[in-house]
Amino acid sequence: MLDSLKRTWIITKREFGAYFATPLALVFLIIFVALTGAFAFYVGNFFDRNQADLTSFFVYHPWLFLLLVPAIAMRLWAEERKTGTIELLMTLPLSPGEAIVGKYLAAWAVIGVALVLTFPMWVTVNLLGSPDNGVIVASYVGSFLTAGAFLAIGSCVSALTKNQVIAFIIAAMVCFLLLMSGMDLVLNAFRGWAPQFVIAAIQSLSFLSHFEDFSKGIISLPALIFYLSLIGFTLFANRIVVDQKKAA
Amino acid sequence: MPALIEADTLIKSFGSIKAVNGISLTVMPGEVLGFLGPNGAGKSTTMKMVTGFLEPDSGTARIAGYDVQEQPIAAKARLGYLPEGAPAYAEMTPASFLRFIAAVRGFRGSDAQRRVDAAVEKTGLHSVLHQSIETLSKGFKRRVGIAQAILHDPQVLIMDEPTDGLDPNQKHQVRELIREMAKDKAIIVSTHILEEVEAVCSRAVVIDKGRIVADGTAEDLRQRAPYHGAVAIRVATDHAESVVQALQRFSSIETIETVGKANGHLQLRALPKNGMSIAAEVTQAIRESAIAVEEIYVERGKLDDVFRQITTSDQGGGHA
Description:
The structure holds two protein chains of two kinds.
Chain A lengths: L1 H20 L2 H20 L11 H4 L2 H13 L1 H9 L1 H5 L6 H21 L2 H10 L4 H26 L5 H16 L4 H4 L8 H9 L2 H9 L5 H25 L3
Helix pairs in contact in A: 1-7, 2-4, 2-7, 4-9, 4-10, 7-9, 7-14, 9-10, 9-13, 9-14
Chain B lengths: L4 E10 L2 E11 L4 E5 L6 H8 L7 E6 L2 E2 L4 H6 L1 E4 L11 H11 L4 H15 L14 H13 L5 E5 L7 H14 L4 E5 L3 H7 L2 E6 L2 E6 L1 H5 L8 E6 H12 L4 E10 L2 E8 L6 H11 L3 E6 L4 H8 L10
Parallel strand pairs in B: 3-8, 3-9, 6-7, 7-8
Antiparallel strand pairs in B: 1-2, 1-4, 4-5, 9-10, 11-13, 11-14, 12-13
Helix pairs in contact in B: 3-4, 4-5, 9-10
């Protein structure tokens, strides 16, 4: 068990370094911080709202993640397959699960760094007034978990193809559908023929409604279970895809 | 001593193509097995199954006694593997890449550093240690791949075309390295280069269309060459007839054929009957008849000819 954690950590360290060895992580961090700020101030009218909270900041996170997380995830496995390093990785004395979790955690950590770098927003709002910091913490947790769920999907999709652009597009599409699954856009495609419980199930997959819980300051158990089980399940699927596709 | 590499009737299909069709191998410590075959014969697929990267449709593979599918971590810990094309993380430097491999293999601190240093020393990577791997020449990339494979001094070493892309000096170095390590390890080396088999391998296995078509030493293979043991004679055209007559009386000689004609000389070739040695008879006959021959030598048979003869599949395409 301890050895397993050690190996996972070694993979995470290497992968995290790989993000920063190329401009990828830097570009991601700059764009994320710049866009979250720009959306909060110009689209969300942070100042005009005259409220000391970060609602106008967090509300755009899922939409930014929709674009940026597949960009972080697309290389995870597609690149290993394209360059053949997957053969090296899979013949080292570690389990595929350790490799998958290790790589996933590295990408998630990059997103974590991006969220940490938005701290000036938090400082600003605390200087301007006295916001409910509990709500802000919960919102950060929700934001990080949403990114994590998108990332797991992106990682799984990335193992399906050697082509990073295809991985990006499919991951973004799947994430979009999940994000919108509580909305009529998606639900109307099922209404009329699918039984009610199916529609209810699809509706319950909606990221937006779960994310809303967090942005109201509620870290609810169902929402936590939703995100963590989605991540767990998707990474499990990721393992199967890697096993199936590694040699193709 | 138990075998370090055991493959038992490995079978693998890709769609309707049977890439590997029942290959069994054992390699003992101290053996260097040359793995030969045309492109698409199933060499790489076999190696991928032996290393545990690919799961066979049926059959088993064991490394140092550990089944690669049942006990993959124990098996892989005892295995050094250079995959086809020597893949490595392009953005890393050889130094950081080798440290990563050492860490995954469970080496820590000074022990890890010692192992990295030794692998760097053996593969001559000093000059490029801190350059990113993507900027390295093909030869250096290959050496990085070899360095990661030998880093943990494994009992079993499997290398897919280790000298591909190296210049003659580097090829020589790598062959020296393989010979050095061969003492107590079991090594499989796949190659296209037949001279390599003679240079480093104690045994050669030739596969074609997913099956083993020959298994033996380089010398065993040579004996299957069409002109193995034949005696070539170059003589002035005027004397050719008397040479043929002098040789015809030997029952050990099957036929005497004329190979070519140039500058007033005839090139003859005496073929022995079923592998008998005829060199002594031929030289004696020529000495007795007092004919001046320009040149006389025993043909050893070309491995290339043997290779072409026993592998008949189309070149290229399919899974290598």
